Amino acid sequence: MAENVLQVRHLGKSFGDHEVLRDVDFAVSKGEVISIIGSSGSGKSTLLRCMNLLEKPSGGEVLFHGENIQKPGFDLQTYRARVGMVFQSFNLFANMTALDNCVVGQMKVLKRSRVQAQNIAMAFLEKVGMSAYVRAKPRQLSGGQKQRVAIARALAMNPEVLLFDEPTSALDPEMVGEVLAVMKDLASTGLTMLVVTHEMGFARDVSDRVVFMDGGVIVESDVPEVVFTQPKHPRTREFLARILNE
Amino acid sequence: MPNAQSGFFEWVFFFVKTYGPMLLKGAGTTLLIALTGTIVGFIIGLAVGYLRAMPCEKENGAARYWLMKAARGLLGVYIEIFRSTPMIVQAMVIFYGMASVFHINLPHLLAGFIIVSINTGAYLSEIVRGGIQSVDPGQMEAGMAIGMTYGQTMLSVVLPQAIRNILPALGNEFVVNIKDTSVLNVISVSELFFVSKSAAGTYLKYFEVFFITSVIYFVMTFTCTRILRWVEKKMDGPKNYDIHGSQTVPDVELIQAKGGASNG
Ligand SMILES: Nc1ncnc2c1ncn2[C@@H]1O[C@H](COP(=O)(O)OP(=O)(O)OP(=O)(O)O)[C@@H](O)[C@H]1O
Ligand SMILES: [Mg+2]
């Protein structure tokens, strides 16, 4: 068994008296690609957001290489560079070009020089097929292009893990493919990935493990073959029947 | 000099000729106070708006929380007071208050700068706060998610967008200030209105002088409005961008020529 990069233990999260996550437990080992599936409101986004502390967990803990990310003195800035996030709505910095989007974090967080940061940014923009658009502002790009730049931005921070929160859900159907292609490529390079997705094809074909969430708990977690062909839990079966018939 | 039989235009001509330079100097003072007041007011607005938009949670230290609370309360009082009283009254209270309570006789012009700045600051604080809040929260989250701090993301991502959004309001504030500095005549700041009043009083020809004065005010505000619109358009930048092959991006090319770094 490979080393655990991230471990979530008894994680709970409530908004007021609305309990959104309950006693969530799971581990991510190095190089693993995990798809998180589940119906709307089941807590998938909240789980990812708790993992990089965009949301503060109400209970439990998140360990990064065995270290509690909420312990006093923990270097959250560096951690967030190591555990990147790609959002459903891209969230590219609207006031910056594609290139600067990928440069600013490197300079501010990793203290790289502008020259070094631009080189690294260029390399990753090239990798996601966006090097022709380095000078474009986000509003001049299509959704698929924006998401590819957002992925390059996260990659430029030299992350160990990338968290994707429904990266293709805001895209027109014809652009989903280009983003999934980039993600597949990343998966094959051995990057550790946690992907909340409604793309069952991606979950089945690309991920090493599929986690099904419902009502704030992990109902089932197994290799895709098992989850998709012989799910143990009736709620999983129900969900899959519903989503695969869409 | 025109006499009692002289018509309107003769008097106007007379005032332009003899008081023209003085009126223009007054107009210069007006512009200077309006501009300085708007810039300093904007800096105050940025600082106050930033503080008031900042999230503060008890969990990040109780001392800091209460300090923030207190600072915000005071700033709220400042904003309320200055937005709820006329600037002409603020001018009287500050100028004569400084003299009688602190025994400080402010130079008139300096008093003018101070009054317009803090008055503008109060208005712009709320506008800046609104500008910050109008920026998609996803921008801040994206900054935090790659490890930038709240302050770093604010400075390089959120504030530039907020400022772009409030630029029209900022320009508007400047134009309003050009007109509103006229109230400073009550504390004898020699801006355009004050100069006009003295000139008109000497000959008891108020209509003639203030006709000229209104033309000067109009030219100033009209010109400034046009310039600001032009600046806004410029700031939006070109509608199109050039598509480059990576080889044709000059600055990147230059970097690569220096021997690129690798992501290690
Ligand atoms: N900031 C918040 N304040 C209050 N409630 C929230 C907040 N964020 C999420 N919730 C609630 O938490 C629950 C889980 O939300 P979450 O976004 O994690 O679901 P999800 O599984 O990602 O759903 P979707 O597939 O629609 O994205 C929902 O009921 C939602 O209303
Ligand atoms: Mg979600």
Percent range for β-strand residues of chain B = under 5%
The CATH superfamily title of chain B: MetI-like
Average pLDDT number of chain B: 85
CATH level 1 name of chain B: Mainly Alpha
Uncertain runs of chain A are: none
SSE pattern of chain B? HHHHHHHHH
The counted number of beta strands of chain A is 10
> Which percent band covers the strand fraction of chain A?
25-35%
CATH architecture designation of chain B: Orthogonal Bundle
Rg of chain A, rounded, reads 18 Å
What is the spatial order of strands in the main beta sheet of chain A?
A: 6-7-8-3-9-10
The span between the termini of chain A is 37 Å
Structural class category of chain A: alpha/beta
Estimate nothing, just give the exact number of structural domains of chain B. 1
Instruction: State the helix count of chain A.
Output: 9
Number of helices of chain B: 9
Radius of gyration of chain B: 25 Å
Structural class of chain B: mainly alpha
Low-confidence stretches of chain B: 245-264
Write the layout of secondary structure elements.
The complex is a heterodimer of chains A (246) and B (264).
Chain A: E1 4-15, E2 18-29, E3 33-38, H1 44-51, E4 59-64, E5 67-68, H2 76-82, E6 83-86, H3 98-109, H4 114-127, H5 143-155, E7 161-165, H6 173-188, E8 192-196, H7 200-206, E9 209-214, E10 217-222, H8 224-229, H9 234-244
Chain B: H1 8-53, H2 62-84, H3 87-101, H4 108-134, H5 137-145, H6 150-180, H7 192-203, H8 206-236, H9 250-257
Helix pairs in contact in B: 1-4, 1-6, 1-7, 1-8, 2-4, 3-4, 4-6, 5-6, 6-8, 7-8
The structure holds adenosine-5'-triphosphate and magnesium ion (MG).
Which descriptors would you attach to this protein?
heterodimer, A: 246 residues, 9 helices, B: 264 residues, mainly alpha, MetI-like fold, elongated, disordered C terminus, binds adenosine-5'-triphosphate, binds magnesium ion
Describe the structure concisely for a colleague.
Chain A has 246 residues and is of the alpha/beta class. Chain A has helices at 44-51, 76-82, 98-109, 114-127, 143-155, 173-188, 200-206, 224-229, 234-244, and strands at residues 4-15, 18-29, 33-38, 59-64, 67-68, 83-86, 161-165, 192-196, 209-214, 217-222. Chain A is built from nine helices and ten strands.
